[in-house]
Every structure is written in C-alpha cells, then in structure tokens.
Amino acid sequence: MTVTAVDSTAAVPELGRGYADDCAATARCLARFEDELRAAGPGEAAVRLHTAARRARRRFVELHAETLYAELTDGRRAFLRLDDLAAGAARLIPGLTPTKEQIEAERRRPQRVKEGREIDHGILFWGLLRSAAAGRHLMEAMRRPTPKALAALPAFRATGRADFGIVSVERRDGVGEVTVDNARFLNAEDDLLVAALEAAVDLVLLDDGIRVGVLRGAAMTHPRYAGRRVFSAGINLTRLYEGEISLIDFFLARELGYINKIFRGLSVPDDGGDWLPEPVEKPWAAAVDTFAIGGGAQILLVFDRVIATDDAYFTLPALREGIIPGAANLRLSRVAGNRLARQAIFADRRIDARSGEGRLLCDEAVPADRMDAAAAAAAAELADPAVVGNRRILHAHEEPEDVLRLYLADYAVEQCRRLHSPDLVENLERTWISRNR
User: Fold this and answer.
1) pTM higher than the cut 0.90
2) Cα–Cα distance between 138 and 69 in angstroms, integer?
3) At 18, is the secondary structure helix, strand, or coil?
4) I want to staple 292 with a disulfide (CB 3.0 to 4.6 A). Which of 37, 39, 49, 296 is the partner?
C-alpha cells in the first residue's frame, strides 16, 4: 500500500486502484489509526489521528459511494434505513463507520465528553446522498412505512386509534389527528419522539379512511403552561446535553423520515396496478398553539395549511444553540423571503403569528377558543380530492427531490461537526446551568 505522509502519526492511503483494492487499503489504514488511537489516549494526538482517519473515509466514499451502496443493498434491491446502512458499512469495511459498541459507548457519555464517532456517520451519508443513484434510492427507502407503523396498522384500521406513548393518532370523520404529548419537555423533540411521530404519520397515510392529517400539541402539565396546548419547544436540549440526541436517529431520520413523508408521501412498491404509480400522499394541516420554537417552526414549512392561535409565535434559535435548523436553511427563504429568513436564522428573531411577517408562516391566526373550529375547517378544505394532485406537482417543482438530497448531503457533515464543536458544548453548559440553578 502506498501512503502519503500527513505527519508522524497519520498517513492516508492513495486510492483509485479499484473498489476492492481501495476497500482493503482503507480498512488497513483505519485499523492502524484505531490502534494508534488506543495507544494515544485523549489529547491532541487523538485529534490528529481522527482527522487523518476522517480524511481517508471521506476520500473512500467520495470515490465509491455508489458501489458501496449497491453492495450494502444487494444492487439496490433491499431498502435499508439509515441505521442498517451504517451497521452494514461497519461490517463490510471495518473502521469506515463506528461499530455498534462504539456508538453505544458514545451514547452513555454527555455531549461535552464524546469522542465524536458520529462524525464518521456524517461522512458516510454525505457520500451516499451526493450520489444520484445511491441518494435517490436511500431517500425512497426512508419513505417506506416503518415496522412500528406496519405492526400497529391492523389495530388502527379496526379501532381508529393508536397510542405510541408520547404521540397518539385518532381517526375522526376522515381526519387523522396526530397529537404530540411529551409534556415533561413541552413537546420538545428527541430520538424517541421522532420515531413515534414517524409511525404516527405512516398510519395517517396508510389508513384508507383518512383523507387529511392534522398535527397538534397536547395540553401541558408544566406549571407555566398548565392546561394550555403547546405545539413544540424544538430540540430537547436536556437530551442533547446528556448526549442522547443522535445524528442518525434524530437529525437525519427526522428530515428523511416523517418530515419528508408529510411533504412527499409514502414510497410504496410498484405492484403493477396503475400505469403511473404514485406515492401514498395526503394533505396536512398544523394547528399551532402557544409557540413553535426551533424544530416546531421548521416543520411548518412542509404543511399545506398552518393555523395558529393569535398569541402564538415562531422562533429558530438553532444558531444560538450551535446547530443547523434542519431544512429551514433550504425552505425558509422560499416561504418568507430572503431578509426575514436571515433574521430568523442568524438572529433568532421572534415572529408573532398575528403580525404581517407571521402571516408568511401561518395561513390564519385565531383566538384560542376558535382553534378547534379553524383546524376542522382547514382539514375540510384540504379534503378536496384535487388537492393531492396539485400539491404533488407544486412540491415537485418548488423543491425537487434532488435539491433536498444534495442539501441533506451537506447537512449531514455540517450538523455532525456542529454537534461536536466547542461552542455548542459551551452553549449547552450555559443553558443547563441557568435552567438548573
């Protein structure tokens, strides 16, 4: 193996000799780095070794993402989710992605002391999403119904109700009402809530008795908001501080999973039943009570109708927290204009629902006692059969799937670097201390 010296402790392989040879060379290189990391322990030497190893990983997926993906998915015949792809890559090319044991060890550590192994997941999905063939297939795989939803579907069809603990779904008069009830954290999102929301969205899309989906937050028990509904407090900063928010199961699964399913519908196998197979797609409305902070504001950008209480507000504090606000950097300028988008993203500008700017983010602001009626009226309007065809062609041209795919490729690496940046840790420490005095 020919190597190019980086420094006394780090060298990366020269690739380009073909997929099989490059797999072997990369695996040998990464094994050597891993041995040196164990010997070096934490410190500057470890940082240099991780940097060199990530350079080798990036170069490999840059050259071979499409071939790697084909091998992982049996020539794109298997539709694997993100965690299965990452685990398969770790088995196929040891060191390319973290092992299950390495990730489990990372999840037991607070964010401030993590080794940063998830950055290697970011490199993998940057490479896969950049590839047109691999990335399109991966996005289709992530729009398939989840096993959790398929398991719950028979009972849901029979009873019209499913309860995933912090998320419930109920069918009423053709409307699938999804209610988020993570009361302890004011409906803030974490890995568990993302998984439950995706299963709930799947059920709404799969159930033939539902024409429209509606997402709303439950009434809270928090003393400050007791008895009031809350839409979303954004990312669960407590879970992030504790190291329990993951790149795969939160940041990437969220964008490629339930949010993309709301926007584009479910991907289903072509059974030959129609001359032009289409996704299982339905219109969606959001009912925003009190506030939609961070991720709560992000997801409003994919809904067909947004109704808010007239005292509600929207903010995007992700930059202040040290992270990237999902796909808001892609969508907000289109929805609200360039200047307002930058004020919201860079300066955490509060936007009140009843203001002129707020009407760019919601269709209607109503008194709280009229919210039920307004949400029902919005759902009734969206139930028109012609809405689905119109939204499908609108979405296909306002945000082509390849545009989202390439955005998420960059997002995968930028977000994982942000997650392990010193300033994010400092922000979390300040937030944690101020909340727990």
Assistant:
1) yes
2) 9
3) coil
4) 296
